[in-house]
Amino acid sequence: MKKYDTKKVNFKVFRYNKETDRLPHYESYSFSVAQDEVILDILNKIKWEKDGSFSYRRSCRHGICGSCAIKVNNKPVLSCKERVFDLIDIFGYELVLEPQDIKQAIKDMVVDKERFWNKYSNVKPYIVGEIEAHPKLEYIISAQESDKLDEADYCIQCGNCFYACPSVQVNGDYIGPAAFVKAFRFNMDVRDNAKKERLDIVNQEGSGVWDCVKCYECAEACPKELSPIDKITKLHNQIFENNMAKDNVATRHAVGFKDSIKKHGFLDEGELVRYSEGNVGVLKHVPEAIHMFKNGKLIMPWQMPKSEKLDEIDKLIKISSTVKFK
Amino acid sequence: MENLKYAFFVGCTPKQSTPELMQSTLAIAQAFNIELVELVEATCCGASHMQDYDDFLSLVLNARNICYAEKRGLTIVTVCNTCQLNLATAKHRLDNDEKLRDRVNAKLKEVGLEYKGTSEIKHFLYALIDDFGIDAIASKVKNPLKDLYIAPFYGCHNIRPHEVHGSSNGNEDPYRPTSLDRLIVALGGHSVEYGHKNKCCGFHVELQAPKTANRISGSAMLDAIDNNADTMVTPCPLCHLRLDVQQKNISKEMGEDISIPILHMPQMVGLALGISPEKLGIKHNIAKIDFIK
Q1: A98 three-class SS
Q2: Which helix (H) or strand (E) holds B78?
Q3: What does the alpha-carbon distance between residue A325 and residue B4 come to, in Å, rounded to a whole number?
Q4: What is the pLDDT of residues B102-120, one digit of tens each?
Q5: C-alpha to C-alpha distance for A23 and A218, rounded to whole angstroms
Q6: Which of A54, A225, A257, B248 is most buried per CB count within 10 Å?
């Protein structure tokens, strides 16, 4: 019989009790870990064998309730799904276990998810429609209609994408990837009548989709592999398709690429900034522009590089464009 | 070893706001006898913004870009993480969705092109490390960067999402990338370990949300400085435009003076190879490269 493989691992664990501790500290626990054990097994071992006061959320143990999400060496994981051996392959034999956001820690691995849920409830995460209070039958939608939800329905609200998002970390207003996935999910539902209201919410400057930094942290963090950023792109598309794009710096920034590619093939960087900001807004960039000019980092309009085959590019843009900006 | 030859997807910044990236890329390619054939027909990749407006158009234009490398039978080399992401994403989508590929090819046919999926897409960093080889690089070092503590800043779009890059970035783990660290060590330098090495610089919201952008890059730079970095190095010109050009605005937002030299990856390699600062375009860097005598 094949020998059961085990490895000795040191776990450095974030410990903190908001009610009694002034500062958090890290406690080390060593275990011999078997090849099929997941992080949740380790959390259980700490509580059952080392310290009964150790706290963490857990429920289904099957990757569907979203309770047990934490970070290991800064990688967001679902504890019940993440094999320790896979983490050893990436990080070696010392693993640091931390709550999703140490600034929001209440006790050990448990965080206060109030902010997460507030953003979530902001986007009307339910069907708005004329549905009878006591229907006799279910309201069934077809498989094709359900496909359009684009697996967004599988989100388990674990919060991994939200707590991995850098824009969330520095901007308290930002709605964040999890709630955007929800907004997309209900906007694609044929039974729903609140699409424009939801688009209005996610279209706001400072809190909406325009503040996505495009880092793809959410795509990596999602244990259900839903790629929240792809849903964010689709919300951008819906905003344009529904003629709801406001004429502002963010929308012009997205649109400006097409004009520039048509004209030069390349992006005219200076012109994109002027077009996006407008003739007045662009003035705030003058100090850095002077700096760049002095260092030879700005070219003059007549020096603008051009791609070969501009006619071909122009034709392709004409026949392939699917959206008009009004 | 036969000399390496690639289709060079230059992108927009090397010919405009980061001439030093163009100069240093060409200088080290020459030193390593790597032939870079410029894709003169290529357009801008859309910089991960165009798809927000018109996803299909952005896909068609990137498919066209790849067609011209396929025609030449060459692997594409990019020098910008975002170009890399957009081209690699287009390839990933087209190679995995026949219906989509047919729709795109129907458009390309009208200009006499066809996307086949035969060219790989690689950032120059991985062409150097995986194709040219880390030992071959180390053997060419004339001025080891032995007194320098260098903080590698990987930039998002070379490492995430991992399934799009796959083997073309050596299957780099997005939570523990090692390529730049290994390159620094091969050049004789010390690579600085810090938490923000695989984090975002905020470039893509610089216009619409400058506060967010400045806070994000400020946190990364402070982390590098707190860990005793003499300089940061990045393979991405967009990260470079943020970290190098915006230091004054970042300092203002963070409420403290943040200044640190920022090198492009090929500038760092060039310095170790003994190539002159002039040929590496060092005069274009805004934060002074204070360790060059």
Answers
A1: strand
A2: strand B76-78
A3: 44
A4: 999 999 999 999 999 999 9
A5: 29
A6: A257
The CATH class of A114-241 is mainly alpha
Which chain A residues contact residue B54 at CB under 8 A? 240, 258, 321-323
| Structure-derived torsion over alpha carbons of residues B214, B219, B225, B228, reported in degrees to the nearest 10 | -160
- Cβ of A287 within 8 Å of Cβ of B64? The answer is no
Contacts across the A-B interface (CB distance below 8 Å): 200
pLDDT band at A325 (very low <50, low <70, confident <90, very high): low
Helix/strand/coil for B100: helix
Q: How many CA atoms lie within 13 A of B180 on its CB side?
A: 28
Cα A251 from Cα B243, distance rounded (Å): 25
CB B36 within 8 A of CB B29: yes
Model confidence at A326: pLDDT above 70: no
Would strands A25-34 and B76-78 be described as parallel, antiparallel, or unpaired? unpaired
**Chain A CB contacts of B209 below 8 Å:** 167, 171, 206, 210-211
Residue position matching structure tokens 């090929």: B266
Map out the domains of chain A as residue ranges: 6-111, 114-241, 249-320
Nearest neighbour of A308 by CB, restricted to B40, B174, B216: B40
Give the containing element (helix H, strand E) for B84: helix B81-96
Residues of A in contact with B211 (CB under 8 A): 170-171
Q: Which two tokens stand for residue B33?
A: 């006898």
Of B43, B52, B156, the CB nearest to A233: B52
The dihedral over CA atoms of A74, A80, A82, A87, expressed in degrees to the nearest 10, equals 60
Closest residue by Cα to residue B241 from B215, B217, B277, B268:
B217
- DSSP track, A264-294: HSS--HHHHHHHHHHHHHGGGGHHHHHHHHH
pLDDT at A149: 85
Percent residues over pLDDT 90 in chain A: 86
The answer to whether A185 touches A155, Cβ cutoff 8 Å, is: yes
Mean pLDDT of A11-29: 97
pLDDT at B292 over 90: no
